[in-house]
Write a structure and sequence with these properties.
Length: 443
């Protein structure tokens, strides 16, 4: 990798070449965050095997350390230990809590901290995170008596949290968001009575599964499990957690194996939680050739291997708001897949992507258009005409990890070489992505 300009590393991308072999993707990012957070407020020691050693979970760990939680160094293939301090054992930090680029860290921290009575906390992040909306979390926490303030009436970081005595409540969330739900559930652990979250559609349920495993009094009911109730008073106990591979990271190989001629990839030990497997349903809709192997259950989470093979003449697909909560992070790589399907694919109900690390709809439309894709951007999604030849060009991740990896797969199928600025953004969720790509790619 060479560099042009002090802050602009340029990576030359390898065109063509099938992908063959086995790969283990990093641990699930959502589960990694929660294992650290729940371990911190439990009693006793939590051990975590397979935790994602990437920037976002490290931001969560650093925030917890700043509040007196002892967490062993986070590195690849190490078992992480978290010495819990209990529900009310967090210490007021002497400095601002820096959440880096991690929206999950900031939003879940709000839920964790609003009930830490008589303590004051300030949270900030990088430039991107400070432009992402937080009022959607702060507002329901205020219903419980939480006090969160910040820029633009509490919508943007830096945010100030004054720990208060919380009351139980029934809270309907405006969107199906695992982050909003999880923040409320964390706050509910220290409230004076039961709290029920009602979602408009089911979002990822890692928090519910893991909180139960730690001993929380949590019940799931209502239509399609959209009512989640926490009754405070239970003592959380440290657990032994094994984090499965992140299906959002596996998605890059699932799409690559499907669209790149001659490819066959087996992704090992992938989490198959049904609230996360929308990507598999869309691949089946496309007619992709994939098999689930060695399925099992680990600590309440279904896990297995996925084998994917190249398939000619994939079908166009439609994504709607109904399935979006189960594959929101996979939209960038699915927009690449759409470029190689027969016919027109349409993505709707994805307006949440405009407030991720970047405006992912705008960025993917901009970058794929530069490669020659026929792609129209609309308020909540994209319309993509398949089978238009892509050509190599200079690409830019625009600082987004999922964009970087999606464009890397697109470049393999382009005519002519490509280069990419800010390719190292992939380290946010998949530090070894470029090494794994180089290993799998066969000329």
């Amino acid at each position: 990798m060479s560099s042009i300009g002090k802050d602009q590393p340029i990576r030359t991308l390898s065109e063509r070449g099938r992908l063959l072999g086995h790969v283990c993707v990093p641990g699930d990012k959502s589960i990694s965050h929660r294992a650290l957070l729940f371990g911190a407020i439990s009693e006793g020691i939590t051990t975590i095997k397979g935790l994602l050693p990437a920037e976002d979970p490290i931001s969560t760990a650093n925030c917890l350390r700043a509040m007196g939680v002892k967490i062993s160094p986070i590195s690849k293939e190490e078992i992480i230990t978290v010495h819990g301090v209990g529900l009310n054992g967090l210490k007021e930090p002497i400095d601002i809590l820096n959440c880096g680029n991690s929206g999950t860290t900031m939003r879940l921290m709000l839920g964790l901290l609003v009930g830490q009575t008589n303590q004051h906390f300030v949270l900030t992040g990088d430039k991107s995170l400070c432009q992402r909306p937080m009022k959607r979390v702060g507002q329901p926490l205020k219903i419980m008596g939480g006090q969160v303030s910040g820029r633009c009436e509490g919508n943007y970081a830096p945010l100030s949290v004054e720990g208060k005595n919380l009351r139980g409540a029934v809270i309907g969330t405006p969107v199906a968001s695992a982050q909003i739900k999880s923040a409320i559930l964390l706050a509910a652990l220290t409230a004076d009575g039961p709290t029920t979250v009602i979602e408009p559609a089911q979002s990822r349920d890692h928090s519910e599964r893991m909180l139960k495993a730690f001993g929380a009094n949590l019940k799931v009911g209502g239509e399609m499990g959209r009512h989640i109730t926490v009754t405070p008073g239970a003592i959380l106990k440290g657990q032994s957690i094994t984090v499965p591979g992140d299906i959002s990271s596996a998605a890059f190989w699932l799409v690559a194996g499907s669209i790149i001629p001659g490819s066959e990839i087996t992704i090992e030990n992938v989490g198959l939680n049904p609230t996360r497997t929308g990507i598999l349903e869309i691949l089946q809709q496309m007619g992709a050739d994939l098999d689930l192997l060695n399925t099992k259950d680990i600590a309440g989470e279904p896990v297995g291997d996925i084998c994917v093979r190249y398939k000619q003449n994939l079908n166009a697909f439609n994504l709607t708001d109904e399935i979006m909560p189960r594959l929101i992070d996979e939209v960038p790589i699915l927009s690449v897949a759409a470029c190689f399907c027969n016919g027109t694919s349409k993505i709707t109900g994805a307006s949440e992507l405009r407030i991720k690390e970047t405006d992912r709809l705008a960025v993917m439309a901009r970058q794929l258009s530069a490669m020659g894709a026929k792609i129209d951007e609309h308020s909540d999604g994209l319309t993509i005409q398949g089978k238009e030849p892509l050509h190599g060009c200079h690409l830019d991740s625009e600082t987004d990890h999922r964009v970087a990896m999606s464009l890397a797969i697109a470049s393999i199928m382009a005519n002519g070489p490509s280069t990419m600025s800010r390719s190292d953004a992939s380290a946010v969720s998949y530090p070894d992505f470029w090494n794994d790509l180089k290993r799998l790619q066969k000329k």
